[in-house]
Specification:
Blueprint (H helix, E strand, L loop, with lengths): L3 H4 L7 E3 L2 E3 L1 H16 L8 E3 L5 H13 L3 E3 L6 H10 L4 E4 L2 H6 L2 E5 L6 E5 L13 E5 L7 E5 L1 H15 L6 E3 L7 H14 L2 E3 L8 E2 L3 E2 L1 H11 L3 E4 L1 H10 L12 E4 L6 H9 L4 E7 L4 E5 L12 E2 L4 E4 L4 E5 L5 E2 L9 E10 L5 E6 L4 E2 L5 E2 L2 H8 L4 E7 L6 E7 L6 H13 L7 E6 L18 H7 L1 H7 L6
Parallel strand pairs: 1-11, 3-4, 3-5, 10-11, 14-15, 15-16, 27-28
Antiparallel strand pairs: 1-2, 5-7, 6-7, 8-9, 9-21, 12-13, 16-17, 17-18, 19-20, 20-22, 22-23, 24-25, 26-27
Helix pairs in contact: 2-3, 6-7, 8-9, 11-12
Length: 487
């Protein structure tokens, strides 16, 4: 990272935002100001948190912590206050960058530190117990499948190695304008978006999320997003599967607002192959990938010239993938992270928790989560991601979660792509999905529900459903679907 800024072009915008256009010199100045503020704390080596909307200042602070060797703890805006406090306590955070003193005070940071920036820096009055965390630059908290988020500890090198692999893989596309659509606190956008754009010498377009269509934890306006892509002539973006579904639903054939796009990466969850094909028919140059926070984000990715829809592509040059005897995907190569609180240790292979397979040409396919396997009342093993993918690829369904462990048939909780969607249209989509499934994996009953979101802990940061929380929220509907009169 230390030589990164020296390699950026002079005079060309590197980071742009509302009323902001920074070239290398301006970025260096903002990084220096953040470094000066961080040095001015009473414990200048202690971890620092960052709670803010997408802004070029966010990126400058991230780079400043790397220059100083300080651990940064990005706090996603969609976490609950209890989850923020858990992350702050777990990492022994003693200062925070955020937009208002009220936000800082609510989390226990009451002492301002001089900082000439659009965000503000505040310290805690308490005495911390730790100094710096050796070789840890970022602690990314993932909501995972439990109420308390887990901290994944990454060095700067681990993150930049992933970005370098992506930059090399995408070099032939000559991408010059990347638009951030995901929160910077999400590792996928932070590394695959920002860092890869910086290494490529591309302009990184960093706007408040509301200006790109994302509001709150789960509200996404695809029309605003399409307008932003067209207005800023973005050449690359990163999407979650449900965002892609929404964009495809509202787009026209050969959508004019996306003509500038050269590469659209989709990840964070399994993307149905029919959705990939439908997106391409409308002009989206979309390619699915797969990644893990524990591996610094991206592990594999489809690319122009090395593309197989339905797969997650081939592993990046610095990643190895193998399949264990029970079907679990294992990832090898340098840069496997560890969890906060665990001792750092070198491991050759990381068990991903995902089930999958590799084809004869080395393309990786995701078959589901190992712990999600349902065993029906008739003894059939079913990965719920299988019928869920069919549902998501069948039409106007934004999200779907399937239940049926120890039950005679499967039931689906369905979030329609639009609140005005008629039940008949959803039933037709279920029928289309069932036509592609064997009898034991078909959806016999379904019900409508509200979106699954990090805000109510029913989804992770990357949009993966948290099944236990969804089952609890929907317990009455699930019970009704299995009642004798519903059989």
């Amino acid at each position: 990272m230390h030589n990164l800024l020296n390699n950026l072009p002079v005079g060309t915008p590197v980071l742009v935002g509302p009323g902001i256009s920074w070239d290398r010199t301006a970025l260096e100045a903002h990084v220096d100001r953040a470094m000066q503020a961080l040095r001015g704390r009473k414990n200048p080596q202690a971890p620092v948190a960052l709670l803010a909307d997408n802004t070029p200042e966010w990126i400058a602070i991230d780079l400043a912590t790397q220059q100083l060797g300080i651990a940064l703890v990005p706090l996603p805006a969609f976490f609950t206050p209890a989850q923020w406090r858990h992350a702050i306590e777990a990492a022994d955070v003693q200062a925070i960058f955020c937009p208002t003193p009220q936000a800082a005070q609510a989390l226990g940071f009451t002492m301002p530190v001089p900082f000439d920036g659009t965000l503000h820096l505040y310290e805690s009055a308490r005495a911390g117990i730790s100094g710096n965390l050796p070789d840890i630059q970022k602690i990314t908290f993932t909501s995972g499948t439990t109420a308390q988020p887990k901290g994944v500890c990454l060095s700067a090198r681990q993150q930049w190695d992933v970005a370098q692999g992506l930059q090399a893989s995408l070099a032939g596309l000559q991408i010059r304008r990347h638009l951030n659509l995901l929160p910077l606190a999400v590792l996928l956008e932070n590394i695959a978006g920002v860092y890869t754009a910086l290494l490529s010498g591309a302009t990184n377009i960093c706007l408040p999320l509301a200006e790109t269509g994302l509001r709150g934890a789960s509200q996404f306006d695809p029309e605003i997003c399409l307008d932003a892509i067209g207005r800023h002539q973005a050449e690359s973006v990163i999407l979650l599967p449900q965002m892609l579904q929404a964009l495809v639903t509202v787009s026209r054939a050969h959508e004019p607002r996306i003509r500038s796009l050269k590469f659209v990466a989709v990840g964070g969850g399994k993307t149905p192959e029919p959705l990939i094909r439908a997106a391409r028919e409308k002009g989206f140059p979309v390619y699915e990938g797969y990644g893990l926070s524990e591996c610094g984000s991206v592990v594999s990715l489809n690319l122009p010239g090395a593309d197989r829809p339905g797969s997650c592509g081939k592993p990046l040059p610095n990643r190895l993938v193998r399949i264990a005897t029970d079907g679990e995907i294992e990832v090898g190569g340098a840069g496997i992270a560890h969890y906060l609180g665990d001792a750092a240790h070198d491991i050759d292979w990381l068990a991903s928790g995902d089930l999958g397979h590799l084809d004869a040409d080395g393309f990786l396919y995701i078959d589901g989560r190992k712990k999600n396997i349902l065993v029906s009342a008739y003894g059939r093993n079913i990965s719920p991601e299988w019928p869920e993918a069919e549902l998501l690829g069948a039409g106007p369904i934004a999200q779907a979660v399937v239940f049926g462990d120890a039950r005679p048939w499967l039931v689906a909780a369905i979030v329609p792509a639009s609140g005005e969607m008629a039940d008949a249209a959803l039933q037709a989509a279920v029928d289309r999905a069932n036509a592609r499934l064997p009898d034991y994996a078909r959806i016999r009953r379904w019900f409508r529900t509200d979106a699954f979101s990090p805000a109510d802990a029913t989804a992770t940061a990357n949009g993966r459903p948290r099944r236990g929380a969804i089952a609890q929220r929907c317990q009455q509907q699930i019970a009704a679907a299995y009642a004798p009169q519903g059989a």
